[in-house]
Each structure stands twice: as C-alpha cells, then as structure tokens.
Amino acid sequence: MVGSRHTAGHNKHIPRTGLVYGLLELVSARRPRQGAGLDESLANKLQSKQLTSELSMKIKRIEHIAVALKNMDVVKDVLANKLGIAMEYEEHLPAHATTLAMFPVGETYIELLQSDSAESGTNKWIAERGEGLFHICLEVDDIDLSMRELRKKGVRFQTPEPLIGHGNCRIVFMDPATTGGLVIELAEQPKPAST
C-alpha cells in the first residue's frame, strides 16, 4: 500500500511502504508522551523486545558476490593482473560439478564460478540468462535458525537442508520465487575446532 499519512504534531508526510511504515507506526503509536506513566514506558520496552526477538537471525556481512562464467580464465586475469586483486584460493566442488575462484575485496569476495556439467545450477543459470552476476551470499551466524525464521516468513529454499559448499561452509539457496527473483545464498562459516 502506497500513500502518505500526516503524523500528529508534525507537518511531515511519511510514505506508507512496508517495513519502514510498520516501524514508523510502531514508534509513533508507542512513543511515550510527556507525563506518561511508568506502565506505558514499560509497555514500550516490552514491545521493543518482542520486535527484536522476532528478528533473531543475524546477517554478519555480504560473504561474496558470485559471477557465473563459461570460462573463468579471462575474468581471473582481469581481477588479478589488471585490478591487482590476488586470488585467495581456487576450489573444485565435485558434488556441484563446479570450480570456483575466490578474490577478496575488503570484507567480502568476488566468487567466479565455472561448471563442467550442463545440469549444474551454474550452467542452467548461464543457459537461461547468460554469463554475469549470479547471486549474492549472506553470511549468517546460525544457518538452521535463519532457515527456520525465514520459513516462518514465507521464504522457501532450493534444498530442505544446508549443503557443504565453498570453504567447507554450510550453504543453502533461497527459492528466487520467494525473493523477488533475486538469488540469495546463506552461508555459515565452519566452526573452529575446539582444543
């Protein structure tokens, strides 16, 4: 729903759009008034804690941006020799019939993907949409918790459980039909071995 609403005491029009509108409604409807009793202030704190507990999934960073290629050699050369980004590692994932190369940029990576199987997700993507940007990967603290939370919010996944992916991460892809067509991967880094 798009429109505007006039907030009491303000001469501003606030757009009515999704989460932003909902949060603004919550804040304006629940803001303690001067002289408000302790009970209203306590109710506001409890409401805030309830909202926080509903949003318990923690996204740490964009882990990587993936590029699907028929042959990654040209782009590897551009990244390494023209842009000066050293490749951190290259890895073949037999379960996915895919080879990947990871190039660190700040706190994230550019991931180049090349597959030797026509049935792989990478080559199916290339056949449908051509070479280029494929997906974004978000690092999460707990992939199982994240999947439970997202399922409650109507997001479906391409596999029922996480798989082992790059760098021994546990990974899962959201169904693009439930993410507006954007391919989003979640990744949980391997836990350090306890000593």
Can you give me a brief rundown of this structure?
The chain has helices at 18-30, 38-54, 73-82, 121-129, 143-152; strands at 4-6, 13-15, 59-68, 89-93, 98-105, 108-115, 132-140, 163-164, 170-173, 184-188. The chain is globular and about 45 Å long.
What is the general shape?
Answer: globular
* Rounded mean pLDDT score: 79
At the fourth level of CATH, the homologous superfamily of the largest domain is 2,3-Dihydroxybiphenyl 1,2-Dioxygenase, domain 1
Corresponding CATH architecture of the largest domain:
Roll
Total count of domains: 2
Radius of gyration from CA coordinates: 22 Å
Widest beta sheet: strand line-up: 4-5-6-3-7-10-9-8
Structural class: alpha+beta
Count of individual beta strands:
10
Distance between the termini: 54 Å
The proportion of residues forming helix, as a percent range, comes to 25-40%
Order of H and E elements: EEHHEHEEEHEHEEE
Q: How large is the share of residues in beta strands?
A: 25-35%
Low-confidence stretches: 1-38
| CATH fold description of the largest domain | 2,3-Dihydroxybiphenyl 1,2-Dioxygenase, domain 1
Number of DSSP helices?
5
Largest sheet: 8 strands, mixed
Given this structure, which CATH class of the largest domain is correct? Alpha Beta
